[in-house]
Amino acid sequence: MNERARRRAMRNIVASLMMSNLTKHDVLEVAEEFLYGDFGHELGSMLRHMAMILPDVPSERYVTASSPEPPSLNEGVYELVQRKKMSKKALLEAIGSVAPKLIRSEQPTGTIRQLIEWFFDRATPTQSSRLVSLLSDAAQDPYLKGITRRG
Length: 151
Description:
Helix content: 55-70%
């Protein structure tokens, strides 16, 4: 990894943790897991899965035969929406902010899970990435939010 990308990634991870609702004790546990546990491996697996939706990253490069199957993106977003206790209306507003033409062309209905599936079936990789960023806690940081909008 080049030094510039490494520093940006580390800065974004630290910023995300600072903006989260984790306690000092929680952050120390995360640090211990990074140093001595399986947290880094699990995070790497999740990042590989997330990278598959980015348009400029060839997914074949990140798939290995020994990697455990990560949870689907739909399921991850569904869990995020459930954890944040978002309503269908709020989810549709989030989708509309990253893919306004998609929302205008079709008026999606159904459960939250069905709306998420509908979105990922039709969205571009960039739109998918932006929705994930918007819904994640990291996107609440103005600095990170600006980076997300530039992409």
